[in-house]
Design goal:
ten-stranded mixed β-sheet; about 35% helix; alpha+beta; about 280 residues; globular; 12 strands; 8 helices; two-stranded antiparallel sheet
Length: about 280
């Protein structure tokens, strides 16, 4: 009993939330259709974030669009979109929305049991979104002038027994396309924290651990992992650990959202105003 008082409050709290998520994930197994199970688990994650983020942060699901988005071009529905509530979104139907890429601080794909092809497909959609996030440099208080981008995470209720397997998958997949991981490896110091690679920023598996890229805009993944109380190991730009994955994801999402409160963009960039005033 004495030992319980030595556990940091937030670490204990998120440990219980992890247990709750695991139990809710089991509840979803009651549904015969895999699509239904996946949607229920996504809803659990959105609810968790909605209850544990700033009211200035919105949590939704839908498509992330950019100024080049057009009818007929392929777009992928994202399970969890974390966006700046200062700006609008465009509501479609049944809870699906369109989010302007400039307002999105991070997005999360949710899987029931992580496989290598899940990481690959998430990497493909991540590259598409990041490659079209042509955002101007701006001041991210207190980080100074940097070029912002949305951050990509993958959360799974279950997965491989060893975190080293996920690390190996991510390394292999990151070499399959031009995700600019080599550029990240060549960077150093403060520049690494602001480096605009096109790969997934972190994979988190409930009860198993996490693998992150050391490229976050408030210092280092090591800093955030240390705050979470996790024991971490580094392999050049890869940071990974076997505990406290949920509280680390919560820290990252909230830190990134706070940075994006300083973001600015013009809705007019999505509209051809000139054509609106020209007559035949």
């Amino acid at each position: 009993m004495i030992g319980d008082y030595e556990i940091p409050l937030l670490k204990a709290h998120f440990g219980r939330i992890s247990q709750r998520l695991a139990a809710e994930g089991e509840v979803a197994r009651s549904f015969e259709q895999g699509t239904n199970r996946g949607q229920i688990r996504e809803a659990f994650v959105r609810e968790l974030l909605s209850l544990n983020t700033s009211p200035l942060t919105g949590i939704g699901t839908g498509e992330i669009i950019n100024t080049g988005s057009a009818v007929g071009l392929p777009r992928r529905q994202i399970d969890v979109v974390v966006h700046n509530n200062r700006y609008p979104k465009v509501s479609l139907a049944t809870g699906i929305d369109l989010f302007f890429v400039e307002t999105v601080s991070s997005f999360v794909e949710v899987k029931s049991c992580l496989r290598m092809d899940h990481i690959r497909s998430t990497a493909v959609s991540t590259k598409e979104i990041k490659a079209h996030a042509h955002l101007d440099e701006q001041r991210f208080n207190p980080s100074g002038i940097i070029k912002p981008r949305p951050y990509s995470f993958l959360f799974a209720y279950d997965g491989p027994a060893k975190i080293s397997t996920i690390l190996r998958w991510m390394k292999e997949i990151s070499s399959e396309d031009e995700y600019n991981i080599d550029g990240l490896k060549a960077s150093g110091g403060e520049s690494r924290g602001y480096f605009n690679h096109l790969f997934i920023d972190g994979v988190f598996v409930l009860g198993k651990g996490f693998v992150c890229l050391d490229s976050l805009p408030f210092g280092s993944c090591l800093e955030a992992a240390s705050i979470s109380g996790a024991t971490v190991t580094t392999d050049h730009v890869w940071v990974y650990g076997t505990e406290n994955e949920l509280i680390l994801l919560w820290i990252l999402i909230n830190e990134l959202s706070e940075k994006y409160l300083w973001n600015n963009f013009e809705l007019g960039e999505y509209i051809d105003f000139l054509s609106m005033f020209l007559s035949d």
